[in-house]
């Protein structure tokens, strides 16, 4: 019986060549790691113009303002706003400035135990409304443009429905509004979470738990393939710097205020109250039909965190007639850091806003 | 035995005399009880309230008397003396019972650990993967739980209970975490098996010419297995269980720390949380008032 011959000589030769290449790569990587590395994130110059408790407002001034209405960016509570200004050349903020927008960015800060009682109402009708008021007064304008990112997009939708008179145009990016979809893992897991136990035990949701949960969404890619890719490219300085910037952002999740989390999980993920028009904030009910301003709804086709099914329903539920769904050929983070988004989508947002300046 | 009997015979009349004297004494006391004096018994002037309040007193004395009457019975006295003269026997029996119980418990623990000679107690090592976490949980539930929940006594009992509780919850969390990690490992195992079957690096297959291609195929299979796992009821159950265990351990740890902090005179987490809540409510109320004032001022300016 013939057994297949194993070409040992070829295997050994390949191994030797690989070992030699790895040695050279390590030598170059050593030089890179020993030299100066630019890994700072959120480096676009800004002015701190407003602060309330832990919440700060950053103002980015464009060289030449083309848009009369200032643009307020609202990020979610589960990650940092620095995603929008991650690295020079791939910064949503920088590209919006290039398009002539006056950009304001909310930094939700780092909640501590004293923030555990803050509710969704405190964040939206409290901090967010105070910030909108501040910008309106500062610029002497009746309305601002609002752009929401991820759960910040949901906040923006809720705010715009409650205060439509203050919002000129609304842009949502990867913003979930239909929460009981069985498509995304996060949506499936959230259905089973006993958030009362979680909040009672921890007070705030620890950032490290959020980090671990995100890693568990795709362990082969996020825990293995990503780092193998890093090993393969660690002799490339640009790659190393960008990789470290992304690592800094990913593992810098702040704690999430407990009461807000309780409401997000129960009212949004588990009860799906928003699209049903049953969500209540403080004394008021959130009615999406009151959202009458122009709406641009952007989401990623391969988003594993907020799948298209969770986003695309919004345009059909609002009262506005000027709505547009824009599905991008990318994933969740790719919407903000991919070169295509930077080159095509940011100018599109600016043009869309400009066309609705009035 | 003879000595015991003689002692008993000598003490009996003395005890009977003492009991009779005691009964007479309490009978006299009953006559003097509140509202039960001569006039009270005659029922002439005692108020209704006094009679009502005296009823329990009378009932107690009657009961006391009845008890002592019973003691004067010859058989009872004999039994009392037998009891008094047998302390050494009682102590011996108590000690025997104590040691017996301890050895019984010890034997039970050993049997539980040995699991009738096999690690799983069911099917031997071939079922180790599937059974090991169940066995661990059973041991934790049946043995450590009982051990760590024995009632603690005296001054250090309360803090010791806190320590035991935190220890138990930590053990539960460790067991749950181990099970969860094992579940996360299963797709790796399955994907490697699948790759072996595809003839990549399998023992009977040819070695891959392009390792990267082989790796990509493996990664895709691995991702598929993970996606299947993550949507399974088993995974969600284990994830939830692990999260619960972590929450329970965190709570138990906080209770223990609060105990220690109270001992050091530091405010506990609960106390600080109460303070934070008060500050939160105060700030909210202040903010609401400030907004009202702003609105009033704005309407005045307009008016």
Notes on the protein architecture:
By secondary structure, chain A is α/β, with parallel strands linked by helices. Chain A has one domain: Rossmann fold (3-Layer(aba) Sandwich), CATH 3.40.50. Chain A is 46% helix and 14% strand. Chain A contains 15 helices and 10 strands. The longest helix of chain A is centred in the N-terminal third of the chain and has 27 residues. Chain A is globular, with a radius of gyration of 23 Å. The mean pLDDT of chain A is 92. With 303 residues, chain B is mostly helical. Chain B has 10 helices and no strands. In chain B, helix 1 runs antiparallel to helix 3, helix 1 packs across helix 4 and helix 6 packs antiparallel against helix 7. The chains are: A alpha/beta (358), B mainly alpha (303). At the A-B interface, helix 5, helix 6 and helix 8 of A face helix 8, helix 9 and helix 10 of B.
Widest sheet, order of strands of chain A: 1-2-4-3-5-6-9-10
Count of extended strands of chain B: 0
Low-confidence stretches of chain B: 1-11, 35-47, 49-53, 115-128
The CA-CA distance between the termini of chain A, in Å, is 84 Å
Give the overall average pLDDT of chain B.
71
How many domains make up the coordinates of chain B?
A: 2
Number of helices of chain B: 10
Q: How many strands, what sense, and barrel or not for the largest sheet of chain B?
A: none
Overall CATH class of chain A: Alpha Beta
- H/E series of chain A, N to C? HEEEHEHEHEHHHHHHHEEEHHEHH
Helix-strand makeup class of chain A: alpha/beta
């Amino acid at each position: 019986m013939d057994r297949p011959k194993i070409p040992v000589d070829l295997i050994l030769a390949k191994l030797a060549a690989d070992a030699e290449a790895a040695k050279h790569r390590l030598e170059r990587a050593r030089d890179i790691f020993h030299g100066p590395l630019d890994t700072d994130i959120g480096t676009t110059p800004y002015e701190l113009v407003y602060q309330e408790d832990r919440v700060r407002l950053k103002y980015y001034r464009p060289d030449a303002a083309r848009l009369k209405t200032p643009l307020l960016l609202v990020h979610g509570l589960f990650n940092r706003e620095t995603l929008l200004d991650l690295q020079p050349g791939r910064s949503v903020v920088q590209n919006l400035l290039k398009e002539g927008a006056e950009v304001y960015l909310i930094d939700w800060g780092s909640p501590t135990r004293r923030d555990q009682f803050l509710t969704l109402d405190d964040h939206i009708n409290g901090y967010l409304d105070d910030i909108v008021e501040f910008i309106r007064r500062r610029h002497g304008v009746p309305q601002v443009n609002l752009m929401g990112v991820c759960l910040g997009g949901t906040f923006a939708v809720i705010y715009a429905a409650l205060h439509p008179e203050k919002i000129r145009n609304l842009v949502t990016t990867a913003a979930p509004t239909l929460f009981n979809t069985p498509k995304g893992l996060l949506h499936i897991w959230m259905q089973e979470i006993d958030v009362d136990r979680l909040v009672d035990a921890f007070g705030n949701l620890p950032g490290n738990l959020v980090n671990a949960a995100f890693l568990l969404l795709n362990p082969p890619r996020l825990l293995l393939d990503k780092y193998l890719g890093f090993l393969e490219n660690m002799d490339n300085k640009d790659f190393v710097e960008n990789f470290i910037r992304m690592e800094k952002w990913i593992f810098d999740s702040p704690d999430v205020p407990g009461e807000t989390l309780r409401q997000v999980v129960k009212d949004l993920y588990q009860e799906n109250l928003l699209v049903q028009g049953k969500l209540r904030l403080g004394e008021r009910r959130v009615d999406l039909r009151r959202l009458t301003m122009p709406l641009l709804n952007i989401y990623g086709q391969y988003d594993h965190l907020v799948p298209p099914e969770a986003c695309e329903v919004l345009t059909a539920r609002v009262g506005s007639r000027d709505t547009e769904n824009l599905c991008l050929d990318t994933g969740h983070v790719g919407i903000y850091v991919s070169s295509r988004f930077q080159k095509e989508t940011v100018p599109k947002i600016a043009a869309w806003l400009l066309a609705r300046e009035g | 035995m003879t000595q015991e009997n003689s002692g008993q015979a000598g003490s009996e009349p003395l005890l009977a005399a003492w009991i009779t004297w005691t009964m007479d004494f309490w009978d006299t006391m009953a006559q003097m009880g509140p509202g039960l004096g001569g006039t009270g018994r005659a029922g002439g002037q005692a108020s209704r309230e006094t009679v009502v309040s005296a009823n329990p007193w009378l009932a107690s004395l009657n009961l006391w008397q009845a008890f002592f009457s019973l003691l004067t019975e010859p058989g009872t006295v004999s039994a009392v003396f037998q009891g008094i003269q047998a302390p050494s026997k009682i102590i011996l029996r108590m000690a025997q019972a104590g040691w017996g119980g301890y050895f019984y418990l010890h034997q039970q623990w050993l049997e539980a650990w040995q699991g009738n000679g096999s690690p799983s107690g069911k099917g031997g090592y071939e079922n180790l993967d599937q059974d090991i976490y169940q066995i661990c949980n059973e041991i934790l539930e049946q043995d450590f739980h009982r051990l760590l929940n024995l009632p603690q006594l005296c001054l250090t009992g309360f803090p010791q209970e806190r320590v035991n509780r935190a220890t138990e919850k930590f053990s539960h969390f460790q067991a749950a975490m181990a099970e969860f990690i094992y579940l996360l490992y299963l797709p790796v195992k399955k994907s490697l098996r699948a790759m072996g079957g595809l003839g990549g690096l399998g023992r009977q297959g040819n070695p891959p010419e392009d390792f990267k291609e082989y790796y990509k195929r493996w990664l895709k299979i691995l991702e598929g297995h993970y996606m299947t796992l993550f949507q399974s009821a088993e995974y969600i159950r284990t994830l939830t269980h692990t999260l619960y265990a972590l929450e329970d351990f965190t709570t138990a740890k906080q209770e223990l720390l609060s105990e220690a902090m109270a001992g050091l005179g530091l405010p506990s987490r609960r106390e600080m949380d109460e303070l934070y809540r008060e500050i939160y409510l105060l700030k909210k109320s202040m903010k609401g008032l400030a907004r009202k004032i702003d609105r009033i001022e704005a309407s005045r300016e307009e008016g």
